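debug: dumping io for the single-chain case to check the tokenizer round-trip. Nothing else runs in this session.
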Amino acid sequence: MDGIRVDVAVIGGGISGLSAACLLKKSGLSVAVLEARDRVGGRSYTVKDPNHGWVDVGAAYVGPTQNRVYRLIKELGLQVYNVNEEKRTILYTNGSWSAFKGRIPTLKNPISYLDQYNAMRIIDKMAKQVPVEAPWKAAKAKEWDSMTVQEFIDSMCWTREVRGILKIFINSIFTSEDHQLSLLYFLQYIHGGHGFNRISLITNGAQEKKIVGGTQQLSEGMSDWLGADVHLNSPVTSVTQDRAGAIVQTVDGKVVKCKYVISAMPLPLISRVRFTPPLPGLKAQLIQRVPMGSIIKTNMFYSTPFWRELDLSGMASSDTGPSAACFDDTKPGGSQGSIMAFILADKCRSLSQLTKEERKQKLCQQFAEIFKSKKFLEPVGYVEKNWMEDEYSGGCYSVALPPGVLTEYGREIRKPYHRVYFAGTETATEWMGYMEGAIQAGERAAREVLFAEGKIKESEIMQDEPESKDYPASPIATSWMQANSPSVTTVVAGAVLSGGVALGAVILQLLDTDIFG
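debug: decoded output
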């Protein structure tokens, strides 16, 4: 057996675990990072394809207010570029096709605009009432945690068109279905991502930029700095702790004696490790109740980005076909074109039973239909990653919290167990599920260890990150209509109360197809 003696053993060599290890080492503690895979990066994984160059098949995007990622990008000397959003974007829902520029889609039903603006305002207003560090303390925590997001949307939205748009948003952000998610968790997530618009937008939003050369460079850069402290191909099997310290053992025979342990594994995978003494019952029950999201991330390659000549951005949202959302993923200055598409949630679980070639063909057919060009049937390459099949992730991007979990078990998410501390993007309070959240959680767990060692004050464990000077966030512009337009409920009620029978009839006729059709 290999004997290793360090101050801290970190389980997991993704962005969160490596961030924890780097901060601890910079603070003077010795570390050993135990990574199960033959690579670092976790859910950030950049494939080096011989024909198409680097391809991010995992985490890829970074945007304003994600200041920890920008800090790391700068430290490692990496470069970023803007995701293409020029030209027209496609929205294809309920059999209706529209092309638009900017961030507000063209809707077929004029009442839908009121419905959409109202829904966004309500979601943001409710999200701000949920403390990101303790959502179970929200005034309506029990009520909101007993409701699914689907129930909430159905009760709030009048038009099928807006319900369809919100479903695409939820599938794309959570890689889960709306009926699988707690409303309280949804609101916490929105608050942690600085609002509905910031999470959903490209320009000035969470999908604004990518890293030249791929996001796995973040982990590789930290791993290079840590050097021999990173141990690959070392799945952890057991953690034994007592008053004197802890012992961590791996499949490949490593025995790490340490004072503290940081687990940076996805929450559901913690159950694979045997803890002595066993984890507390509430922590064990939490782990049983938080499944990972379902996603196959795909990249379709074409000889050129020909869609730009058709006045198309390469971006589309759709409720038909295998993919709910796709983006132009052409490399800066590259002549070869690429469309990145997500296969998500129920569709992912269904289409994972097909062959890779069958999925490729279905995607090509979908692109040809929604972009109205048969050129999409002629790809020159295809790369995909089914994260459900990834042994050491079990899914992506993050966990899906069903109703009841946050209020009953939420206090256990970050709660240490004696000498074991918990990192991972699922445990973040800001940008959960993103690389930003992974860094925040890793550094918070490291500071918990530093506090236990008497090196910092307890008040220093949670720290805000200064805004990036290179990539400061801009306020999100909001039109008067977006901020002040009445809800559909108000319009209908006003028409009825004022005796506007004819107007009320027109509104109800516009809504008829959406509500009852």
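debug: round-trip ok. Residues 2-43+215-290+400-454 form a domain with the FAD/NAD(P)-binding domain fold (CATH 3.50.50.60).
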